[in-house]
């Protein structure tokens, strides 16, 4: 593995090259019936979140009123159009993530961030439960300065609540997304999209994590 461990972030010069051709996904969300890819209707915003395995994380968000579409993918790394197998080596730099397209007139960024913080453990760097590696790191990638500010404020608020109950420091990466270059979002293989709808008894390690955001 080129001297890189599963929990050590790969550098750009050691990352896998990837490919120019995107992975193919279905046109529509199998639960919501909405498009899986943009352009999105006017007024919609996009937020990207990494909470460990994207199967359970995506299901959390497609159930939220005001969420227009969700998709599983890879974000925050160097490799172009990575595959699942490549991402699992920790040699792409990506984390498994969910693209959340939402109507801010119906659901607030605060409500989405509350769902993010409450349903995974943000204090375990590069792991969620038994899932270990940089591809499982906790992350928020904003697409607007307002989202970034809200994410940082929510982290500070949740950290205070965690600390008051004896939990450790939040390790969540919070950044702006680069829509085209390093750090771009890439759709995962089609079988990962809405995986737990297609496979209701499939693996999921997400759920309420003991400390409420509010």
Textual characterization of the structure:
The chain has helices at residues 54-62, 84-87, 109-118, 145-164, 195-198; strands at 45-51, 67-75, 95-102, 127-128, 131-132, 138-142, 173-176, 186-187. The chain is built from five helices and eight strands; from the N terminus they run E-H-E-H-E-H-E-E-E-H-E-E-H. 22% of the residues lie in helices and 18% in strands. The protein has one domain (23-198): Peptide Methionine Sulfoxide Reductase, Chain A, CATH 3.30.1060.10. The longest helix is centred in the C-terminal third of the chain and has 20 residues, at 145-164. The strands form two sheets. The chain has a six-stranded mixed β-sheet with strand order 7-6-1-3-2-8, covered by helices on one side. Strands 4-5 form a two-stranded antiparallel ribbon.
Give a concise summary.
The protein is α+β, with helices and mostly antiparallel strands and 214 residues long. It is 22% helix and 18% strand.
Q: What is the N-to-C order of secondary-structure elements (H for helix, E for strand)?
A: EHEHEHEEEHEEH
Work out the helicity level: 10-25%
Structural class: alpha+beta
What Rg, in angstroms, do the CA atoms define? 16 Å
Under the CATH scheme, the architecture is 2-Layer Sandwich
Biggest sheet: strand arrangement = 7-6-1-3-2-8
Main beta sheet: strand number and arrangement? 6 strands, mixed
Q: How much strand content do the residues show?
A: 15-25%
What's the average pLDDT?
Answer: 94
Give the number of helices. 5
Overall tally of domains: 1
């Amino acid at each position: 593995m080129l001297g890189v461990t599963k929990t050590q972030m790969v550098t750009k010069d050691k990352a896998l090259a990837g490919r120019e051709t995107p992975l193919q996904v279905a046109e529509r969300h199998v639960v919501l019936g909405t498009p899986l890819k943009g352009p999105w209707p006017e007024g919609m915003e996009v937020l990207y979140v990494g909470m460990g395995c994207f199967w359970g994380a995506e299901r959390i968000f497609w159930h939220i009123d005001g969420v227009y579409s969700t998709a599983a993918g890879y974000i925050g790394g160097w490799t172009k159009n990575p595959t699942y197998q490549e991402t699992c080596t920790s040699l792409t730099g990506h984390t498994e993530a969910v693209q959340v397209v939402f109507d801010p007139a119906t659901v607030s960024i605060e409500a989405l961030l509350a769902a993010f913080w409450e349903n995974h453990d943000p204090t375990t760097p590069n792991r969620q439960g038994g899932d270990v590696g940089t591809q499982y790191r906790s992350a928020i990638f904003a697409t607007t300065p307002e989202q970034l500010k809200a994410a940082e404020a929510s982290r500070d608020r949740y950290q205070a609540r965690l600390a008051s109950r004896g939990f450790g420091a939040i390790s969540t990466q919070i950044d702006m997304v680069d829509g085209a270059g390093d750090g771009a979002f890439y759709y995962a293989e089609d079988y990962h999209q809405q995986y737990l709808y297609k496979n209701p008894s499939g693996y999921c390690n997400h759920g309420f994590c003991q400390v409420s955001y509010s």
